[in-house]
Amino acid sequence: MTRLLHISASPRGDRSRSDKVARRLIAGLGAAEVETLDLAAATLPAFDGAAIEGRYDLIEGRAVDPAVIAAWEGIRATVAHFLSFDTHVFSVPMWNFGVPWRLKQYIDVLTQPGLAFTVSAEGVTGLAAGRRAVLVCSGALDIRPGQPGAELDFQTAYMRAWLGFIGVTDVHELQVRPTYGSPEEVEAAMERAYAEADALAGLLRG
Ligand SMILES: Cc1cc2nc3c(=O)[nH]c(=O)nc-3n(C[C@H](O)[C@H](O)[C@H](O)COP(=O)(O)O)c2cc1C
Predict the structure, then answer these.
(1) Does domain 3-205 bear CATH number 2.60.40.10?
(2) Buried-most residue among 132, 183, 187, 205 (CB within 10 A)?
C-alpha cells in the first residue's frame, strides 16, 4: 500500500464518529502517503445540465461540445485525483438510510464513461479495478448485518454496489453503530469499532 485517500463524508469535523474510527484504522495501516478529502469543505465540480449533455456525447462516442470542455476539465481532474490512490477509506455517516449528499455529489462527478468505467458489447468494465476500499459506516440505529432492520442499510449496500460498478472488488467494512443511545451503549459501539479497525489494519498490513 503506497497512497491512501481518506474520503470523509461527515461535516462534523473532530466530533465525527466515522472519522474517529477511520483515523484509527489509517494510523494502523502505515500507508506511505495519506491525504484527506473533507467533502463538506471541498469545492466539487458542479454536475449540471452542460456536464450531463457532455456525458451523453461521451457515452455515444461524439465529440464533446467546446461549451462543456471547462466543466469536464474539473470532472477529469477529480477522477484522475481519485484514481491516483491505491487505497480509499470512506467515512460514511448514514443520512436518511443512504449517504450524505456531498458524498453522492462526489460519486456523481467521479462516475463517468471513459474515465471511471467503459461500456462495450461485453458489458461494463470498471477502471478503478485493482484498488482497495474500506467503508467506515456510522449510524444512530444498530442495524449492523444480522441485526433487525439491517435491510434498511442502503448506505453500505449503495457504497458496495458503486465500488463494484467502477471495478473495486477488494472492499472491507467497519460498522460504527449505534451512535445514539445511553453513553454506555455508544461507548461500547465505539470500542467495538476501534477493535475491529485494529484487527482489520493488522489483516491488511499482512
Ligand atoms: C441528516 C441526518 C440524517 C440521519 N439519518 C439517519 C438514518 O437514517 N439512520 C440512522 O441510523 N442514523 C441517521 N442519522 C444519524 C447519524 O448517522 C449518526 O449520528 C452518525 O453517527 C453520524 O456519523 P458522524 O459522527 O461520522 O457524522 C442521521 C443524521 C443526520 C445529520
Answers:
(1) no
(2) 132
